[in-house]
Amino acid sequence: MTDTYSAGMATRRKVLGAAHVDRAEADKTEFDSPYQALITEAAWGHVWSRKTISPRERSMLTIALLAGLGNDHELAMHIRATVNTGASPDDILEVMLHVAIYAGVPRANHAIKIAKETFAMMNAEKEGGK
């Protein structure tokens, strides 16, 4: 493993949570192992581990791009990660306003629906854990 991979895995765990990463690692097979290594090193090691912008800002950028491109499954995952990145629901609303203008209202409509559902699930889980 390279230093970039190790940094990527640490950042991935910090942003997505150890439980999520542990599940992904447990589900990894010989078939997708090279892909998992690629995203850990490239996305998490080379990009997410950079110190130029904050995790909150990087989270907001990622959510905007995912929403604008219609990557719904990844969108919900990154909205869940906001508890670790510091992006607030108000930040995510601002992101969706930008998505509406720059990527289209239908994309923003759907992304807002996903965000609302995800935040509701997160709140229910939080309340259930009290």
Topology (SSEs and partners):
Blueprint lengths: L2 H14 L1 H10 L5 H16 L6 H15 L2 H9 L1 H4 L3 H14 L2 H24 L2
Helix pairs in contact: 1-2, 1-3, 4-5, 4-7, 5-8, 7-8
Question: Can you describe what's shown?
Answer:
The protein is mainly α. The chain has two domains: 1-52, no CATH class; 53-130, AhpD-like. The protein is 82% helix and 0% strand. It starts with a helix and ends with a helix. The model has no long low-confidence stretch (mean pLDDT 96).
CATH class type of the largest domain: Mainly Alpha
**N-to-C terminal Cα separation, in Å?**
39 Å
Order of SSEs: HHHHHHHH
Count, helices: 8
Q: Give the uncertain stretches in residue-range form.
A: none
CATH architecture of the largest domain: Up-down Bundle
What structural category do the secondary elements indicate? Answer: mainly alpha
The fraction of residues assigned to DSSP E strands is under 5%
Summed over residues and divided by their number, the pLDDT gives a mean of: 96
Give the strand tally.
0
**CATH homologous superfamily of the largest domain - what is it?**
AhpD-like
Envelope shape: globular
What is the count of distinct domains? 2
The main pleated sheet reads as:
none
The amount of helix comes to over 70%
Radius of gyration: 15 Å
CATH topology of the largest domain: AhpD-like
